[in-house]
Structures are given as C-alpha cells and as structure tokens.
C-alpha cells in the first residue's frame, strides 16, 4: 500500500498549472507525484533507499497553502533562505554545443560591461559576496580579466569562473592573467576520464585539454573544482575514477561537484535510457566506485538547505595521498529557525575552493606529517582540504516549490535574485 | 595560576610548580589532536592561552563543524 510521506506543491510539467504534489513511498522508491487535470499523472523516483534516509528527512513544516513560487521569484518575502552564491551570466556565446546545457548557451551576445558593473554593485549592496561568472562560456569575452577586476573592485570577496576550460588549456598565460585580475577559483566542467564521455556529452574529445587546463591553473596558483554532469548510461560508472583523479591532484584540485543530469534548458525531457540519478544512488555509487575510500556515511545533506537538493562531504588529503573524512553529522537543530545566514557556509566553501599554500609545503622533512598534531592539521586542512558536493537540480518532472523556497543558489537577472531551478525551469516538450 | 612576563615561567597557583610544555591530547567532534601546552608536572593542570584558544583551536573547530 503506497504511503504518502509529505504534501507540497508543484507545476504541471507541461502546462505549468500550479498543483498539489506528494512524496509517496512505493515498492521500489519514494516518488514525487502529481496529477494535472489536463495532462494526466506524473511520477518521478526521488529516493531508492540505497543509503539510510534518516539524516535526509525533511523536518520543516509542510506547506499548507500554495507558495507564490515561481511567479514571484526574485526573491519574494516568503523565500526561506539567504543567498549563498550568485550565478551571473556574462555572455550567451559558447564554443561548444553540449548535449545537456541548463543555460542552452551558444545563441546571443555578451552582457554589456556597464550592466555587469551594476550587477556587482547590486550584489555587494545586498551582502552577496560570492559571484559565479557563468554563461555561455565566460572565457569567450576578451575583457574577462577586466570583468573580474570590476567584481573585486566593487567589493565582491570571491569571484568564481564556471568554464569548459578550453581557453585555459590553449593559452598557458591566460590562467595567470585571470589570477592576477583577482579570480578566486575555477569550476571546471569535467565529465570523465575517457574520450567517449566527452564525445557523447560535449561533441568532441576534450580530455587532454581538460588536463592542460588544470596544469595551467596549477601554474597560476588557482584552485580548481571539477564539475561532473553525471548521466546514467554515459559516465555514471566513472564517478570513482573522477574522484580518485581529483584527490590525487590535490592541492590544485580542491574537490568535485557532482551534478546528476537534470532535464532543462537544451534537453527538457527525460526519455529512456536517460533518467534521474537520485542522491542516494549517487552516494551509493561513490562508496562502491571508490572501494569504500569515500563511505556514503561521510556524505551529509547540507544544513538549512532542502535535503533533496544536495549533499557534501568534507575531507583532507593526507600526506599519503588519501582522503580523510572531517565532517561529522551535525547535532545542531535548525528546525523553525527560518532564514539562516549563509555567511558561514559561504566562507567555508570559499576556504575549501580557494588554494592556499601551507607553511609545510616544500618542507617534507618536517617532523610532523601527523594529522593528530594540531598545528599540522590546521595547516593541512587549509592547503589540502577537499570537498565532494552534489547538487540535484530540479526540473519540470520533480519541481517541488518547497525546495524552491529554500534555495540558496540564485541567478542574478536585472536586479533580481532568482532561485537557480526557477530561472532555468523548462517545461516538458510534448513529443 | 599566575601569568608571568615573557621570560618568567608560568606557575601553578595550587602547587606553586613551574608549568612545563607537555604534549597534551584533546578531542573535538570525534577527532583527536595533540599539541604542546604548559602543564603542571604535579597536578596535571593545563594552561590554554587565549592565543591558542582563539587561534588554532578556534580554527580547527571551525573546520570540523558541519555547515
């Protein structure tokens, strides 16, 4: 007998009519379900119970009335969380035509420089101090170093570059120019360790270029976080390989951000064999494919975010080159606290993603490479911290308006801060 | 315990013994660490300076707490 676990609201994936939705425990999975009077019923698995769901249970009060999302997004007074990071599209142009692209980039122009200056000033005024320069492909802008300088000059503390890495690979001096302009860290699209993965997802083999991009960032002292779009049947069996590749290149690689494919932007429909990869499946695969080096028990839903929006694991890479888990399950209860400042989380992430030299670098004979030594531990975490994060973006098939209300990743658009999954929401196309 | 000037040793108030730098273990959030801390050789009382408490210890706490 199916058991209803939670009530919420959603939109019809086709006509976008606002509707009641439920999480239902069925035989093989917990499913997100709704019925549209015009377009019928929809059911999407969100949890297969492959890891214990106890820590992932949503403890906030259920919605009892339909929230104003997404029509009022930008942010409205009913939004339940503070902004952690702001995505800013600085160009629509792109030098790839990827199979999956939430921004559906490639068509359009650069955002005028003056508009970017205004955007940076707006963000600083609202104390939103971490900007992700995104696109399209931001490195196609010849003035990118000036854009970064403008962001820092406006008062942004952290400037992140979201990139496919092609320009970083082709020009060894480019990473140095960006670092000198004030770039804080790089998020590099990195889908796997075989040519076929890139040919399938990005249209051509990019693996060697990705490695060159990482090497050039290393020379420039920039930290790199690998961003892996995980697509079932394409690269979901390379998760462990990518994680190992990443931790073996600590400290230049600061971590891996796993993004199970969502169906929006260029590809709004999930059709067989492509399906949603749930967070519990992802956590299980991480443990399995790393042969237990990264146990799923060390991956936790982030505090204050909706538990179905992602997880994180915090590690330090030991002098033997292996990840050692740092995070412990939080005992802090945040129930009923409402809006919680994102500042600690933002500062924490920035510390991890930004590369910092250790006083022990180049001093391999130091008597203490002992992580129990307080001084060494503190230094090592700064220099060789390593994060594994996952973001499960919502699409038309699993859009939960409660999750939207608790979103901390916002897209800046003409003065408004719009939750990421509302901004890129794409209705399902009728086939 | 009496705080002395830089050149003078710290003295345990109870035992009147000079504290000695001793490897000391402590635990936080499931992790165990050690560092050298002035310790009374007689009663074992340790002196955690403000600089250590607000410096390295606070930093390590911050790194270990869940976000």
Quickly give the CATH architecture of the domain at 85-327 and 340-357 and 368-391 in chain A. Answer: Alpha-Beta Barrel
> What name does the CATH topology of chain B carry?
Ubiquitin-like (UB roll)
What is the chains' assembly state?
A: heterodimer
Helical segment count of chain B: 1
Low confidence ranges of chain A: none
CATH architecture assignment name of chain B:
Roll
CATH superfamily heading of the domain at 85-327 and 340-357 and 368-391 in chain A: Aldolase class I
Overall form of chain A: globular
* pLDDT averaged residue by residue of chain B: 87
How many DSSP helices of chain A?
A: 12
Descriptors:
heterodimer, A: 431 residues, alpha/beta, TIM Barrel, 12-stranded mixed β-sheet, 4-stranded antiparallel β-sheet, B: 67 residues, alpha+beta, Ubiquitin-like (UB roll), two-stranded antiparallel sheet, 1 helix, 22% helix, elongated
Structure overview:
The complex is a heterodimer of chains A (431) and B (67). With 431 residues, chain A is of the alpha/beta class. Chain A has a domain at 85-327 and 340-357 and 368-391: TIM Barrel (Alpha-Beta Barrel). Chain A is 26% helix and 23% strand. In chain A, strands 5, 6, 7, 8, 9, 10, 11, 12, 13, 14, 15 and 16 form a twelve-stranded mixed sheet that branches. Chain A is globular, with a radius of gyration of 21 Å. Chain A starts with a strand and ends in an 8-residue tail after the last helix. Chain B has one helix and two strands. Chain B is of the alpha+beta class. Chain B has one domain (1-67): Ubiquitin-like (UB roll) (Roll), CATH 3.10.20. The longest helix of chain B has 15 residues, at 50-64. Chain B has a two-stranded antiparallel ribbon with strand order 1-2. Chains A and B meet through helix 9 and helix 10 of A and strand 2 and helix 1 of B.
């Amino acid at each position: 007998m199916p058991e209803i676990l939670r009530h919420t609201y959603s939109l019809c994936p086709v006509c976008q009519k606002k509707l009641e939705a439920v999480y239902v425990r069925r035989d093989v999975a917990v499913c997100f379900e709704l019925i549209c009077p015009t377009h019928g019923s929809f059911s999407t698995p969100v949890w297969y119970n492959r890891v214990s769901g106890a820590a992932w249970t949503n403890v906030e009060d259920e919605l009892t009335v339909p929230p104003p999302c997404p029509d009022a997004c930008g942010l409205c007074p009913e939004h339940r969380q503070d902004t952690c990071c702001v995505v800013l599209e600085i160009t629509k142009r792109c030098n790839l035509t990827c199979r999956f692209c939430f921004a559906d980039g490639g068509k359009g122009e650069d955002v005028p420089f003056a508009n970017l200056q205004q955007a940076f000033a707006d963000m600083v005024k609202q104390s939103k101090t971490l900007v992700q320069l995104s696109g399209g492909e931001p490195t196609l802008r010849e003035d990118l170093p000036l854009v970064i300088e403008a962001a820092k000059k406006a008062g942004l503390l952290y400037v992140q570059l979201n990139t496919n890495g092609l320009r970083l690979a082709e020009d060894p001096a480019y990473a140095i120019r960006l670092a000198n302009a004030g770039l804080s860290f790089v998020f590099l699209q990195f889908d796997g360790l075989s040519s076929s993965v890139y040919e399938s997802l990005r249209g051509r083999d990019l693996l060697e270029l990705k490695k060159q991009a990482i090497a050039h960032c290393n020379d420039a002292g920039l930290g790199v976080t690998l961003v892996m779009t995980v697509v079932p049947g394409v690269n979901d069996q390379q998760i462990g390989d990518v994680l190992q590749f990443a931790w073996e290149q600590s400290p230049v690689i600061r971590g891996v951000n796993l993004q199970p494919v969502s169906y929006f932007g260029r590809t709004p429909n999930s059709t067989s064999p492509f399906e949603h990869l749930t967070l519990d499946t992802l956590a299980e695969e991480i443990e399995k494919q790393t042969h237990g080096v990264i146990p799923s028990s060390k991956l936790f839903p982030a505090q204050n975010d909706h538990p179905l929006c992602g997880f994180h694991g915090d590690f330090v890479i030991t002098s033997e080159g292996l990840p050692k888990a740092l995070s412990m399950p939080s005992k802090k209860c945040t129930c009923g606290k409402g809006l919680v400042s994102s500042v600690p989380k933002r500062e924490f992430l920035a510390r991890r993603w930004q590369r910092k030299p250790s006083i022990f670098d180049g001093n391999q004979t130091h008597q203490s490479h002992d992580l129990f030594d307080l001084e060494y531990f503190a230094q090592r975490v700064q220099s060789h911290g390593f994060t594994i994060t996952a973001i499960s973006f919502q699409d038309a098939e699993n859009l939960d308006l409660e999750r939207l209300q608790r979103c901390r990743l916002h897209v800046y658009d003409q003065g408004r801060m719009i939750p990421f999954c509302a901004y890129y929401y794409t209705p399902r196309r009728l086939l | 315990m009496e705080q002395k000037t830089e050149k003078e040793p710290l003295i345990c108030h109870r035992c009147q013994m000079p504290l000695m730098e001793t490897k000391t273990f402590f635990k936080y959030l499931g992790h165990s660490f050690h560092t050298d801390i002035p310790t009374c050789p007689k009663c074992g009382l340790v002196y955690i300076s403000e600089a250590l408490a607000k410096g390295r210890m606070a930093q390590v706490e911050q790194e270990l707490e869940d976000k």
